[in-house]
Amino acid sequence: MDRLERRPKEELARDRGEIGLNSKALREEIGNSLKEFSDSVGRQMAGTFQLQVSQNEMLVKQLQILTTANEQRMDKMREGVEGKLKENFYIFNNCTN
What we know:
This protein is an all-alpha fold. It is built from one helix and no strands. The chain has one helix spanning 2-96. The radius of gyration is 41 Å and the shape is rod-shaped. 0% of the residues are buried.
């Protein structure tokens, strides 16, 4: 009878050991999956950041070019307006004198 009682206890102990090993393996697998996911998200975020930096640099260059072009246009316009004002002022002064 002692042998009959020992057998279920041994099986129970063995089952507990297997469950413990399976639980540990599952925790490790989940941990590895989470790490891989985290690494993947980190790489994607770094790639997105680099893309944004590149796009911002291109935007800055385009804005500099646009600003320079606008300044040149304004200078030409200013010169034209000043020339017309001087011309009209000269005409006005000659007509009144």
